[in-house]
Amino acid sequence: VQLVESGGGLVQAGGSLRLSCAASGLTFENYGMGWFRQAPDKEREFVAHVSWGGGSTLYADSVRGRFTISRDNAKNTVSLQMNSLKSEDTAVYYCAAREGGSPVSKRSYDYWGQGTLVTVSS
Length: 122
Known about the structure:
There is one protein chain. By secondary structure, the protein is mostly beta strands. The strands form two sheets. Strands 2, 4, 5, 6, 9, 10 and 11 form a seven-stranded mixed beta sheet that branches. It has a four-stranded antiparallel beta sheet with strand order 1-3-8-7, with no helix packed on it. The chain has no helices and eleven strands. A hairpin with a 4-residue loop joins strand 7 and strand 8 (77-82).
């Protein structure tokens, strides 16, 4: 199984970025997909989740209304559109796949990508 993130980079506060994650080696539509992030010296935290069919989404309070998660089961991809970025959004962003368990818990996820760095300058 491989999850490969892309789209990270440097952006000014108030700007936007779109992260993508390409999945291979798994039956993609069987997995809920999540995005997590980890800032320096902090724990990895939940950002967003989309259900296997894409019909249900869940967001952390800190990003709700600014970030949008979506998936394309035909292309085995999941995306995170990030708008109105803030300096506190600076982190390495990871996509992950889960079959069951709580979507907000790291322990529920079976597979993880290597991460992509997002830096928001103020």
